[in-house]
Amino acid sequence: MIKPQWQQLLNCEANKEYFQTLTSEITSQRMAGVPIYPAEEAVFNAFNHIDLTDVKVVILGQDPYHGKDQAHGLAFSVQAGIKVPPSLVNIYKELVTDIKGFATPKHGCLTPWAEQGVLLLNTVLTVQQANAHSHAKLGWETFTEQVINELNERNDGCVFILWGAHAQKKGKKINQEKHLVLAGPHPSPLSAYRGFFGCQHFSKANAWLTKQGLKQIDWQLPIEI
Asked: Residue 129, CB half-sphere, CA atoms under 13 Å: how many?
């Protein structure tokens, strides 16, 4: 269930023309039999686990995985039982070197992070099967821009982790006197070796949270689920 502050934002945006056009287009595609991910009930999954003012860390992705049964509404995460995608493999590799004692899970489900206050947000929340970026420019960017604006203004202080040029562009207006912004290359195999490996974003996020008097994120995931 969507948390109350997020629901308030969603209700506000739902009254706007861009959002109505967006949802109408996606509904039309689903009704026409176009496979769209994630499933309708999981589109807003990122907002089910932690409310706006309780977010500690934002990890910003681009659009959902476009393979069957992969996406479930949390950026970089896949459902249990699904092969871990290459970008998440690289995230785990970085965690092994950055977080002492981190053991690589045999799955790619990041829900335990979300439950601790990590908002795993894609800038676009839906995608057609086997067609990356197919729902870019439909209007999701306007919605997620508003999500970031709300966090910037209403959250007392959180860490924004921005991987890749697309995410970094979204973060230009963030108040860095109140929030910590960590930017670096995307963890995909195409760019991870350009500085993602060795970025230490996970330990840096925890060090900052400690300075704010907040509980650190336990980045270790269950080995099996």
From this structure: 10
Q: What is the pLDDT of residues 139-178, one digit of tens each?
A: 999 999 999 999 999 999 999 999 998 889 888 899 999 9
Q: What is the mean pLDDT of residues 57-77?
A: 95
- The question of whether 51 is a catalytic residue gets the answer no
Q: Which of 63, 98, 156, 218 is catalytic?
A: 63
Q: Residue 23 burial by CB count (10 A; 0-12/13-18/19+): exposed, middle or buried?
A: middle
* 60 phi and psi angles, rounded to 5 deg: -100, 120
Q: Report d(CA 101, CA 122) in Å as an integer.
A: 28
Whether 225 has a pLDDT exceeding 90, the answer reads no
Structure token pair of residue 190: 């195409």
CB count, 10 Å around CB of 136?
A: 15
pLDDT digit string (tens) for 97-149? Answer: 999 999 999 999 999 999 999 999 999 999 999 999 999 999 999 999 999 99
The type of residue at 221 is L
